[in-house]
Amino acid sequence: MSAPPPARPEVKIREATLADVDALIGLLVEVAGEGRWIATEPPVDVERRRRRKVDDVESADAIVLVAEAGGELVGELGLRLARYGVAELGMAVAAGWRGRGVGSALLAEGIDRARAAGAHKIDLQVWPHNTAAIGLYERFGFEREGYLRRHYRRRSGELWDAVVMGLRLD
Ligand SMILES: CC(C)(COP(=O)(O)OP(=O)(O)OC[C@H]1O[C@@H](n2cnc3c(N)ncnc32)[C@H](O)[C@@H]1OP(=O)(O)O)[C@@H](O)C(=O)NCCC(=O)NCCS
Fold it and tell me: How far is 164 from 141, CA to CA, in rounded Å?
């Protein structure tokens, strides 16, 4: 009989503060380095990203949530609120923490926060091969609303398609 897996610390979802910015950029660099899940590709312009993250954390038109476990930042969810009432969503969970409910906890809280901020809809774009993300979004009621063909030029020169998904909150 094999030993049980080591206990994982409890995951807590909270709003990001300026003290989280370095860890948030670290997570972005890590996930960008995987090369196939998010739009950002290496090499990441860390200074520009840091400025944008500080703006988002301080802005009334953005919501930045972090998932924390044992004092370590293990996930992020960001929402940018457009004037016309749509909140654009982006999220990432650290590779070693995926498949353990962190993404679901972030998304549940993100949806509540977007609704409380007065958004009537959340939208996002996702690569068609990102079945984990599409599965998560569909489980929370997001629908496929569009498909962008050969839309995003990657640094390799490849043109990638993207799925447009939306969740109506009204
Ligand atoms: C997408 C992502 C945020 C999901 O976070 P997570 O913490 O792994 O998600 P959860 O553990 O809460 O899983 C929730 C659901 O996601 C789906 N899912 C998760 N991993 C999956 C996998 N490997 N294959 C298929 N579906 C998967 C399932 O529907 C799962 O529901 P279940 O637990 O009932 O099976 C995470 O995989 C990630 O950060 N990926 C890299 C960055 C990224 O893709 N960001 C989104 C860009 S649009």
Answer: 14
Pick from 73, 93, 107 the residue to mutate for probing ligand 1's pocket: most ligand atoms within 8 Å of its CB. 93
How much distance in Å is there from the Cα of 130 to the middle of ligand 1? Answer: 9
Alpha carbon nearest to ligand 1 atom 26, residue: 132
Residues 6 or more apart whose CB falls under 8 angstroms from that of 47 comprise none
Q: Give me Rg for the CA atoms of the chain.
A: 16
Could you give the 3-state DSSP secondary structure of residue 2?
coil
The predicted-structure confidence for 69-89, as pLDDT tens digits, reads as follows 999 999 999 999 999 999 999
Report the separation in Å between the CA atom of 30 and the middle of ligand 1, taken as the mean of its atom positions.
17
Q: What is the 3-state secondary structure (H, E, C) of 41-98?
A: CCCCCHHHHHHHHHHHHHCCCEEEEEEEECCEEEEEEEEEECCCCEEEEEEEECHHHC
